[in-house]
């Protein structure tokens, strides 16, 4: 299960990001954990090798709770990827985090159930620290890139990850809001954590598509509404990713790379 393909930086996202790269070609990557969500597109941005994988598959065939996260992350590892950018469509749990704005998350709360969320099933017990879920090297690069494009940017925020595919009840949403969490999403766990187990730097960009129903006076969200806002902001997000890629120091060391030190 080897591949001769190579990339420095990985991107997970929707199919609209294929136009990010010039001269991209696609490759199936076979992993010990099964097939990833789709073929990986490999090309160049700003002179750097970039691998792009639609986390739900090209035709959005995999809902959040059945994505093979381990295969997706391990495919990136097999390509030699050392940095991953993970843009996501998210709901807002705070009035000052408005639809159309973007959040570079610094914390995560897992409310999912039953997802396969580790590469370490034994026989050596491995406890990886996840105190700070997102890469300290990539986060400020992402913040600067978004602000350079005049995007309304929140430089930190907590994402609560719900199981999906259903949206939250009003009571659940109010509870999340009462905890002071800013963003709600369905895919950040275990995606971000599995990157940490593999020693890959990972940064999230949360594109806010709607206010969640727990905010007083907010109507129930629909998938159609979410996708409409996401499409309108697709070009801004692609431009931001290009700028982030341009500024990533691919050879630099980072604490994420040393995630297994002291874990056993």
Structural class estimated from helices and strands = alpha/beta
In round numbers, the mean pLDDT is 92
CATH architecture label name: 3-Layer(aba) Sandwich
Q: Regarding quaternary structure, how should these chains be classified?
A: single chain
CATH 4th-level superfamily? Nucleoside phosphorylase domain
Question: pLDDT below 50 for ≥5 consecutive residues: which ranges?
Answer: none
- Sheet of most strands: 11 strands, mixed
CATH class: Alpha Beta
Radius of gyration: 17 Å
Describe it.
With 264 residues, the chain is α/β, with parallel strands linked by helices. It has one domain: Rossmann fold (3-Layer(aba) Sandwich). The protein contains 6 helices and 11 strands. The chain has helices spanning 69-78, 138-148, 170-178, 188-197, 223-232, 234-247, and strands at residues 9-13, 22-27, 40-45, 48-54, 83-92, 102-103, 107-111, 153-154, 158-162, 183-185, 201-211. Strands 1, 2, 3, 4, 5, 6, 7, 8, 9, 10 and 11 form an 11-stranded mixed beta sheet that branches. Strand 9 (158-162), helix 3 and strand 10 form a beta-alpha-beta unit. The mean pLDDT is 92.
């Amino acid at each position: 299960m080897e591949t001769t393909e190579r990339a420095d930086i990985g991107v997970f996202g929707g199919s609209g990001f294929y136009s990010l790269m010039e001269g991209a070609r696609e490759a199936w990557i076979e992993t010990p954990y099964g097939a990833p969500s789709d073929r990986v597109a490999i090309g160049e941005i700003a002179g750097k090798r970039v691998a792009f994988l639609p986390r739900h598959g090209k035709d959005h065939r995999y809902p959040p709770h059945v994505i093979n996260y381990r295969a997706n992350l391990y495919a990136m590892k097999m390509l030699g990827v050392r940095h991953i950018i993970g843009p996501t469509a998210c709901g807002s749990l705070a009035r000052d985090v408005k639809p159309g704005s973007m959040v570079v998350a610094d914390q995560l709360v897992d409310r999912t159930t039953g997802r396969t969320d580790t590469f370490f099933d034994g026989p050596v017990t491995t406890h990886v620290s996840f105190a700070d879920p997102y890469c300290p090297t990539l986060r400020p690069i992402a913040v600067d890139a978004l602000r350079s494009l005049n995007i309304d940017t929140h430089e930190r925020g907590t994402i609560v990850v719900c199981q999906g595919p259903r949206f939250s009840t009003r009571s659940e949403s109010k509870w999340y809001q009462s905890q002071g969490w800013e963003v709600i999403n369905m895919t950040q766990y275990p995606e971000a954590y599995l990157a940490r187990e593999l020693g890959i730097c990972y940064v999230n960009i949360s594109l806010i598509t709607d206010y969640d129903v727990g905010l007083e006076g907010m109507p129930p969200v629909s998938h159609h509404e979410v996708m409409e806002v996401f499409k309108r902001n697709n070009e801004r997000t692609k431009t931001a990713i290009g700028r982030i890629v341009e500024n990533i120091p691919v050879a630099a060391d980072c604490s994420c790379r040393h995630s297994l030190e002291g874990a056993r």
